[in-house]
Amino acid sequence: MTDASVPPPRPGAVPLRTPDLESLRLLVLVADLGSLGRAAERLRISQPSASRRLSTLERGLGLVLVDRTRRGSRLTLAGQEVAGHARRIMDGLDDLLADADRLRDRREAELRVAASLTVAEYLLPAWISELRGRRPGLYIGLQVSNSEHVPELVDAGEADIGFVEGPRLSRVMSTRQVAEDRLVVVVDPGHPWARRAEPLSARELSRAPLVLRERGSGTRQTLDRALHLAGCERVRPLVELGSTAAVRGAVIAGTGPSVLSELAVRGDIAEGRLIGVDVEGVDLTRDLRAVWPSGRRLQGPAAELVTVARRAVTGARSTRAAD
Question: Which residues form the HTH lysR-type domain (predicted)?
């Protein structure tokens, strides 16, 4: 069954071939310069090569486009019409290339980042500062969300690169580890666990009412997964709060124990506002990862930011080893 709007090919008609851009450019130059030789010189090809290219274009379209005489080359009526179409194609191509240049310039001039709270609050400021030192004119925009939503922002094109702290991604993405973090159990100095001599067991931790981040956060994902691998049920939160700072403040105020990133509570533990409690039988370490759309090559400022992040972690490890 055929489409009635498309006329059937004429008997014996030669199928048309799509012309290549360089042949169309040559035709436009012949029209402008009135000479095949000058057109070939402009394109930096030999005149015989230009003549063969025009002949191929004519055969592909089934038309005589150029009258070749001793006084020069002149377009036929068909050639003038085809050259008009070719000129519009060339102009459109020039616009496309100019837009591509602008897009590249914009890509090199700005970086949109999405990051989970822990990475955004405790690591990214230093990474961004170093990247800005390398690229003083770079604009960096940061969206802070939980680990569940960061991949969605990147996949939707709202961010060029994302950073997550959870063990699970909400969608298939390319990833690269940039750092490692450890969760710690913390209580206020007046809590009974603060005076405990023996480590907590995984089961005790899972049964205790805790002040926790919301579901979907990387901290919560890591804790749930660690307890599951230890053969325990998920925790039943005493309070769920939407930021690390809110959870930390609630624990300091005596609301109850929590499990938070060591990055967030290191200073509080050192100054005695919080007490770290050892736990045995459960692995609370986690990878912090960069994420970007699957199948896309990481490049430009986004790739540089990942390099900065990985170098910062390597430097920190070397410093700790030296100490």
Answer: 19-76
